[in-house]
UniProtKB/TrEMBL annotation:
It comes from the Bacteria. This is Magnesium transporter CorA family protein. InterPro entries: MgTranspt_CorA/ZnTranspt_ZntB. The keyword Transmembrane helix applies. Keywords: Membrane, Transmembrane, Transmembrane helix. The lineage of its organism: Bacteria, Bacillati, Actinomycetota, Actinomycetes, Propionibacteriales. GO terms for cellular component: plasma membrane. It is a multi-pass membrane protein. It is found in: Cell membrane.
Length: 323
């Protein structure tokens, strides 16, 4: 069901009224109306479009979804598209919730693709900032942008924590090559998806803050500047984490190569030690008379040579860190 609200002077005066009464509420010049549609069909969108005079192209973008984060200007209204994000720490997958918004001088219409975008959390944020709500649609839009960008920041922070755990796993005494490679791929994929969502928001907020848009009054400018600062920090943090994941993958390959070299060195050393008794027993196994042939002294001599030479090689390899 569509959700609606009407604010007058920053105070909530009416809620959950039918969509066809939106125009009636807007007859009051002090009123600001919010309408939310979750997974609407084209008929519901067209009803709102007829009430507020929305552009056909903007309505099509909201109906089709899968838009890149953007801010478009039309005659009489603006259109915003963005994504909320949340990291599933178990699978490393990034869960996104798309939201579109039609922005008019006296109304804000949000369109969600599904329930992934938590509209109740957004309403709580608006209710906690009653003083800002009195500044009109720009205040509602600020609450929406601030909620979306804070979600981006929390996702980046969660990814940072997961990458730190991956670093601990990388340098663990026991090798976890397969786990490190799988987790690195999952986190790298999530970072690429997050970058597609976060990076365009810098242009969106920057455009909104321009004076010619008329959406941000001087009283709200510091709040939008704070949102813009969070966008920049999330963008820079995402870029640095992507480089860090690439470094972890390269380091893991280097560690595997070093581990293989150590194993090869140890196997070669043991093969050299085993070659000593093989050579001595082979020599004494000749079918020719030799000193100690067919006597106990020959067996004792060969045994002493095997133990002495093998022990000498073992000590030598141990001192050179080959074993």
């Amino acid at each position: 069901m569509p959700r609606t609200r009407c604010y007058r002077g920053g105070a909530l005066t009416d809620e959950d009224f039918p969509i066809d009464q939106v125009a009636e509420h807007l007859t009051d010049p002090t009123a600001v109306v919010w309408v939310d549609l979750c997974a609407p069909d084209l008929a519901d969108l067209q009803l709102v479009a007829d009430e507020l005079g929305l552009h056909r192209l903007a309505v099509e973008d909201a109906a089709q979804g899968r838009q890149r984060p953007k801010f478009d200007r039309y005659s009489g209204h603006d259109f915003f598209s963005g994504y909320s994000v949340q990291l599933d720490v178990v699978t490393g997958r990034l869960v996104t919730g798309e939201i579109a918004a039609f922005i008019t001088p006296a109304a804000l219409v949000t369109v969600r693709r599904d329930e992934t975008f938590s509209i109740d959390a957004l309403l709580t944020r608006w209710d906690d900032e009653v003083d800002l709500t009195s500044l009109g649609v720009g205040a509602l839009l600020h609450g929406l942008l601030d909620f979306v960008v804070d979600g981006h920041f929390e996702a980046v922070e969660s990814l940072d924590d997961q990458i730190e755990q991956l670093e601990d796993l990388l340098f663990d005494d026991r090798p976890h090559d397969q786990a490190v490679q799988r987790r690195s791929f999952e986190l790298r994929k999530s970072l690429v998806q997050l970058r597609r969502v976060v990076l365009p928001m810098r242009e969106v907020v920057n455009t909104l803050m321009r004076r010619d848009t008329g959406l941000v009054p001087d009283e709200l400018m510091p709040y939008y500047q704070d949102v813009y600062d969070h966008v920049l920090r999330a963008t820079e943090w995402t870029e640095s984490l992507r480089d860090l994941v690439n470094t972890i993958l390269e380091t893991n390959l280097t560690i595997q190569g070093n581990r293989l070299n150590i194993i090869t060195k140890k196997v070669t050393s043991w093969a050299a030690i085993i070659a000593v008794p093989t050579a001595i027993t082979g020599f004494y196994g000749q079918n020719l008379p030799y000193p100690g042939f067919a006597h106990a002294s020959g067996f004792a001599t060969s045994s002493i040579l095997i133990v002495a030479l093998s022990g000498l090689l073992y000590v030598t390899f141990k001192r050179n860190d080959w074993l």
